[in-house]
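ugh finaly. both done.
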Amino acid sequence: MDKVSGRLIVFFEEPFWVGVFEHVSNGRLSVCKAIFGAEPKDYEVYRFVLKNYYRLRFGSAMVTDVKKAGCNPKRVQREVRKQVQNTGIGTKSQQALKLQQEQLKTEHKDVSRKQREAKKQRRFELKQRKKKEKHRGR
């Protein structure tokens, strides 16, 4: 049976509060970044997750190793304390976010290039039409 897990890390990244959603399924990690703005309260984060989780655009999944959860409650408590003190996100999450950012950047470049070429083509056709209209009267 496949194990699916999710995690939300909220931290302050100048000048906004940022939430990083990590989704691990079938040993593959996908990440999404959400900007909260002002410091969110616990109930605001919970409401955001309930309302917007299915609208989030997770990046392409990358392979990661899935660790077994420890059963010792003291160890779990220590790990939780360590994660709370640690500000920021893990390196795998950073790599996944960077990959997602690069993909969005290339998509945006393609779209803007196509728009620029279409605008150039419209201008050319307009010039050609005006040139024909000038010669039509003589």
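ok and the 2nd:
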Amino acid sequence: MNRKPKKLAKHPTRSRRATVLAALGLFALQFLLPLALVLPSALAKQSAAALDTAPADSGDTSAAAEADTGENAAAESTRVQQADTLDGSVTLTVLIDGETETMTLADYLWGVVAAEMPAAFQQEALNAQAIAARTYTLYRLENPSASHPEADICGDSTCCQAWMSVEERMAQWDSDKADGYAEKITQAVSSTDGLALYYGGEPILAAFHAISAGSTKSALEVWGQDIPYLQAVESPEGEDAAPNYYSTVSVDTADFAAAFSEAYPEADLTAEDCADWFGEETYDAAGLPVSIEIGGVEVETSQLRTLFDLRSATFTVECDGDTITFYVTGYGHGVGMSQYGANALAKEGKTAEEILAWYYVGAEVQEMSF
């Protein structure tokens, strides 16, 4: 579908806008602070063991009773935050749960950061996530998805980016932390207003994932397309910094054979000992597995990840009698910014811009343009 790029309204210079925002900030401090700034990653499936850091699956609904009050405060804060901002001037059509909604880029980004990254993370990590999310949105505007021609972007993390409304997000945070978390996300969006990552004058495909296995992966390795700014880089998070850094998935041998043979009918799994089904493995420069030979067929680990619902494509596999077990490291496709890696870098004192430069090789943070 051909879609004309949206054009931004003309704005005063940043210095002039800064003066206006400073005045608004003073107003907010005097009159709105008592209301608490409450505004509305792919971490939406994080385990309940990480209750204070997992954004979506914490199972905590203790804030539900305060959701209405929080949403009213959020709406008021939105109006203040969007005054004379670039994000507030752009309107998007967003597909949410099968329905299209119209909202500003600022509101959309709030919901993305709230859904995609734990609010307990360092502020600079949240700021980096806001810039990455804004960049991905601009990329999608210039490269529309055929999956939803009726909308600019959607709230599905398997297609675009996860998104949560104010009410949903507030209901899932601990009630005693919700206001503080909301203010951090508000700060992440407002303090990075209009900033995005560019390479060669174009907004980049700002891919991100939850947890790397010591190194990110290149787009060439995972998607078969060499993208200069999506290269493999070291990532500092480890098992002490990321919940469920290691995970296991066990599959009955017969079930494995049935599923694999359906996907790869040319594979030979007739050997009595299932250990004989598995052959040579291939690794990338960082020592992470890329492919493995099974039944005489070379299969990419990313394909096995999809086939057996593994948290990542970085794993080893063993066969023990009637059971085949995958020992998995990390969470996500591994390309672009690692969210837990970003948080680790922020704890080391790195700024959002430094974090983004670490993960998106050669890309530069600039004021967004169409």
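summary for the 2nd one i guess: The longest helix spans residues 123-142.
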